[in-house]
UniProtKB/TrEMBL annotation:
Keywords: Glycosyltransferase, Transferase. The keyword Glycoprotein does not apply. It comes from the Bacteria. It holds the Pfam family Glycos_transf_2. This is Glycosyltransferase family 2 protein. It comes from Saccharothrix xinjiangensis. Residues 5-124 form the Glycosyltransferase 2-like domain. GO terms for molecular function: glycosyltransferase activity. Its EC number is 2.4.-.-.
Amino acid sequence: METYVVVPTHNRNELVLELVQSLELPAERVLIIDNASNPPVPPAPSIDEFNPPPPVATLLLDFEQPPNLSRLWNLGIDWAEKQAGGREHAVAVLNDDVVLPPLFLDYMVSALRQTGADIAFPDQHGRVGLLHRTIPGPVPLRERMTGYAFVLRGGVGLRADERFRWWCGDDDLEWQALERGGTVCVGGIGVQHLYPDRSTRSRPELEAQTHRDRTAFVQKWGRAPW
């Protein structure tokens, strides 16, 4: 199963480049979506401007502000599907402020294969093994999908609902998957999330959007995500 990686980012150039380099994947398997960073994300870290290194990732520029995170995820999912050309593949969707353990992608893809789930994500509470959830509906807050790092099965039609511009898009994807092949929580793999909710707290327009997104989620699904 080919694996592709999508990383939306805004004003975290150093962090996103460190993350991408840690993946050790060819540039054609990694997409950075630069959402109006100032300065823009460079195509590759460079010391010698006359002999620049090859790009570390494919780069897509996006300028919508405030951002629609679900739309950015969909851009990446669609890009990966086009790159895969009908071959079996998985798409890792990562925040720009995560630090991944070794073999993270391998463990996630293996869990998708073993269980037939549509989404895999890491457990963050010290449990071990695989938890394959297939019952649709609400998920306990402590067990919900890690929206900052997850891997979905490509080619099955999963897309983020772009009504959820900042919050609840991960919950919506999780609930979609629970109506299909389910989700799998992979224990024993810790992902470090450096700045949870910092962007939301620092931008009033995003803080306001969280309330609209939660309301839209209830309108769609009939109840709150958690």
